[in-house]
Each structure stands twice: as C-alpha cells, then as structure tokens.
Amino acid sequence: QVQVVESGGGLVKPGDSLRLSCVASGRNLDVYGIGWFRQVPGAEREGVGCFSSSDGRTYYADSVRGRFSISGDNAKKTVYLQMNNLEPGDTARYYCAVELGTSWFCASLDSKRMDYWGEGTLVTVSS
Predict the structure, then answer these.
(1) What is the rounded CA–CA span in Å between residue 108 and residue 35?
(2) Are 22 and 118 in contact (CB under 8 A)?
(3) How many helices (H) and strands (E) does the chain have?
(4) Are 18 and 9 in contact (CB under 8 A)?
(5) Whole-angstrom distance between the N-terminal and C-terminal Cα of the chain?
C-alpha cells in the first residue's frame, strides 16, 4: 500500500508562481513514476507532468511546458511541481499519482493507469 499526499495549493494572482509538493510513502517504492494531474469540475482529469525515479527524466503536457517544471528527491520520495507565470486557466484541483515499478504510463500522462492517488490540492489563479 502506498500513501500519497499533496500540499502547496492556494490562491494566487495571474503571473504568480506556486510550488506543489507530493510525498509518497509505503512499500515497493524502489522504482516509480510520480505524475501530476489536474481537474476542474465537469472536465476530464488532465495530465500535467511526470517524474521518473529510475532516470530522473521529466515529461510535460504541451499546455504547461515552459511554465511548469518538475523535480524529484528519490531519497525523500518527494516530487515537486514548480508552476510559474500562472494563468486563470491553470485553476484546478491538482492531484499527484504514483505508478509502481515503472513510469511507462506516467510518462504518457495516462491517468487511468496510475496505481495510487492523493486527494489533491486546490490551485486558484484569480485577480
């Protein structure tokens, strides 16, 4: 069993920055992918980015590439989502999810194939 906890959401103004954290704990976390997804009410969950623990590679959705960056600390099983130049369209609940043993689906930002999910943290971008 793996527990996933996100933190760092809040209310910010357009153009501001925010950093979200995701901490995973539990068994079988030797190799994993941690993905960030976001969702607004009435819409499908959208992939934002992924961190692969095996090689440190990161993957991004086109909608956030160049503004968002992901970094990870394997020792702490923690992944960060740095969001810069935030726009009102980035308003959503942001979820962190873990894929165990590989990061295949994480790298594809396939939310349906992730193994464990956090409860999300709300990000609101408004003037």
Answers:
(1) 10
(2) yes
(3) 1, 11
(4) yes
(5) 40
pLDDT single digits (tens) 82-110: 999 999 999 999 999 999 988 888 889 99
Contact residues for 11 (Cβ-Cβ < 8 A; gap 6+)? 124, 126
Return the sign of the alpha-carbon dihedral for residues 60, 48, 81, 79: negative
Residue 68 pLDDT > 90, yes or no? yes
User: Is 30 in a helix, a strand, or coil?
Assistant: coil
H or E stretch at 49: strand 46-52
CA distance 88 to 59: 22
